[in-house]
Amino acid sequence: MSPLEWRTDQKLSQAAVAKMLGIVGKNPATTWQRWESGKREPPLSVVAKIEILSDGKVTLHSWTQLRRSQIGVAA
């Protein structure tokens, strides 16, 4: 399951997920959006946290697939 699919299934905003993960900075929701869309890669600590929060639905493989699709690499 992709991070976006999980978030929308849970009816969570990007800001809510960012807060749950402890993302800080000028605009944590934008940071999450960039990760969720595959424009940026989240740190492994965030990947581990979201795997726990999602009960294993969003895995390292989910993030890898997302990033590969963003840069145009076949799965």
From TrEMBL:
InterPro entries for the chain? Cro/C1-type_HTH, Lambda_DNA-bd_dom_sf
> What one GO molecular function would you report for this record?
DNA binding
Entry superkingdom: Bacteria
Tell me where in this chain the HTH cro/C1-type domain is found. 5-50
The name of this protein is: Helix-turn-helix domain-containing protein
Species assigned in the record: Paradevosia shaoguanensis
Q: What is the lineage of its organism?
A: Bacteria, Pseudomonadati, Pseudomonadota, Alphaproteobacteria, Hyphomicrobiales
